[in-house]
Design brief:
297 residues, alpha+beta, 4-stranded antiparallel β-sheet, disordered N terminus
């Protein structure tokens, strides 16, 4: 018997005949049983925990050691609702002797998130990151309070007038005071700097661009060649110490002279100008030469 003969020999049954095989009462009892059986919810899918820190911390109150693990998980998922995605950590913490070393993973995060992660370690520390010019980005630009907190120096990693280059902080383990720390971060396109160095410092837009002592017209022509603009000009009435003004290009004669420059925003600087040519000696001139040392003549 071939395949087709086998199929044709099978008894066929219609839907009506099948329905007649089971009584109406039996079907009703079966349906009632199915509807009344409790349905166990499927187990919620476990989320991978976002580990922020796992370091031994000395607990001064009891004199023992504890392992602190702060996981940025949200509230548990409810049945039928997908679990919330864990927030990534914005700071990292590690130990170095008796100190906790903190590094910033996300410089654009909401400062409230920094505070929450410090609070998870029992610390009342306000951390802020502000847009800074290139030679300042990644450094501590301001610190207030916090006895025992030490600056981490990164000699050779940045340029500052005072010679120091604080690139991080060490916080004593078990620190219970309060402190406010401000770091410089890289600015976004078009974002005005909050913390700056000289525009002639290494890493800045005008490093090795010699425009001090040149006229405004001449200086602007040089800036254009380096794809830098000057939207703001600063001058002081009667020389240094007079009333200060920040104005646009239309208020400044092209025959005035450039004395110095500050970073303003990415690709932009503020030129300091005056009616007369600046002196080639004195502290300002010496500092300018130091900034430009090593530049090609």
């Amino acid at each position: 018997m071939n395949h087709d003969d086998l199929i044709s020999s099978l008894a066929t049954t219609t839907d009506d005949e099948v329905a007649g095989m089971v009584s109406t009462r039996t079907r009703s009892e079966l349906a009632e049983h199915i509807m009344s059986t409790p349905v166990e919810p499927a187990p919620a899918r476990r989320r991978r925990r976002g580990l922020v820190i796992g370091v031994p911390l000395a607990v001064a109150a009891v004199g023992t050691a504890a392992v602190v693990v702060a996981a940025t998980t949200g509230p548990p998922a409810s049945p039928g609702r997908p679990p919330l995605r864990a927030e990534p950590a914005v700071l990292t913490f590690s130990t170095q002797g008796k100190y906790l070393v903190v590094k910033v993973k996300d410089p654009l995060a909401d400062p409230a998130r920094y505070r929450r992660e410090f609070a998870a370690h029992g610390m009342n520390i306000r951390l802020t990151l502000v847009p800074a010019s290139p030679s300042v980005a990644g450094t501590v630009v301001e610190a207030d309070g916090g006895d025992g907190i030490q600056m981490i120096s990164g000699k050779g990693k940045c340029f500052s007038g005072g010679g120091s280059c604080p690139v991080g902080v060490r916080i004593p383990i078990g620190f219970h005071g309060s402190a406010s720390i401000t770091f410089g971060r890289a600015a976004r396109p078009g974002e005005q700097y909050t913390s700056t160095n000289s525009a002639f410092a290494p890493g800045e837009a005008l490093h090795c661009v010699d425009i001090r002592g040149r006229t405004v017209d001449d200086a602007l022509a040089t800036l254009r060649r380096h794809k830098v603009t000057a939207p703001i000009f600063h001058y002081e009435e009667g020389g240094n110490g007079g009333q200060a003004h920040n104005v646009g290009r239309d208020k400044i004669p092209g025959t005035w002279y450039v004395t110095t420059a500050d970073p303003w925003a990415p690709g932009q600087v503020m030129l300091w100008v005056q009616r007369t040519r600046p002196e080639s000696h004195g502290d300002a001139a010496a500092y300018y030469r130091r900034l430009m040392s090593g530049c090609p003549r």
